[in-house]
Specification:
Number of domains: 2
CATH class of the largest domain: Alpha Beta
Structural class: alpha+beta
CATH architecture of the largest domain: 2-Layer Sandwich
Helix content: 10-25%
Oligomer: single chain
Radius of gyration: 23 Å
Mean pLDDT: 84
Shape: flat
Largest sheet: 5 strands, antiparallel
CATH topology of the largest domain: HIT family, subunit A
Strand content: 15-25%
Low-confidence stretches: 1-9, 214-218
Distance between the termini: 12 Å
């Protein structure tokens, strides 16, 4: 069976949605139908609601960015700034990285001092200590994500059972970031997190129900 035939014989993802209206009486006495759309995730069955009328609402705090944190210029104590990375951050075991830290252009990756799992690392991006939301360059993110990719591939080679992986970011204190300097969190473990376990179960169920065996041409 060719790959093309396999694709034709395999059920494709079906995205479903339903749109309805909520009728209300406006303060001026006129009636109005407010559209609402419900979208269903084809694998997990979870739904989300799109409320189009929210576009008419003015939300405080969304027109401008908040002021920088008071310590945005305090480079002296930041372990992630270039002058202190080599002396104030931990190193990877030799079995994972002989150099101790993985580097890719503007990004440096090293283990999390307070790990969340078996393999837990930090991938820095951008050499600036404070990077305002929306101002990081595409290249800096690219370097950091590729550094994460290389780290995760190295983990798979070292420990094939640690295939539950995640790359996350909580940028700035308002998002719970404990350090201001921009960085990504990258994790790999043998034990899935709650949401990974949820996705795994639903994906396996969907595959059993709809998928045909995949045969690739050499």
């Amino acid at each position: 069976m060719t790959l093309a035939n396999n694709i034709r014989n395999t059920a494709m993802l079906t995205f479903t949605q339903e749109t309805f209206h909520s009728r209300i009486i406006l303060p001026n006495g006129e009636s109005a139908d407010r559209p609402i759309e419900i979208r269903v995730h084809p694998i997990t069955g979870r739904t989300c609601r799109i409320t189009y009328s929210r576009g008419e609402e003015r939300e405080p705090g969304t027109e401008t960015l908040p002021e920088p944190p008071p310590f945005a210029a305090d480079l002296a104590k930041c372990p992630f700034c270039a002058a202190r990375v080599a002396t104030h951050t931990p190193q990877l075991p030799i079995g994972l990285c002989r150099e101790g830290r993985m580097s890719r252009k503007t990004s440096t990756l090293f283990p999390n001092l307070f790990p969340y799992g078996r393999y837990s690392a930090v991938s820095l991006f951008d050499n600036q200590h404070f990077v305002e939301i929306g101002t990081a360059s595409q290249q800096s993110y690219t370097d950091s994500f590729l550094n994460c990719r290389d780290y995760l591939l190295q983990i798979l080679s070292h420990d094939p059972a640690a295939y539950y992986m995640a790359i996350t970011q909580n940028h700035l204190p308002s998002a719970g970031g404990s350090l201001l300097h921009p960085h990504l969190q990258v994790q790999a473990d043998r034990i899935p997190a709650n949401f990974q376990r949820f996705l795994q179960g639903h994906a396996a169920s969907y595959r059993r129900k709809y998928s045909a065996p995949v045969t690739y041409l050499s």
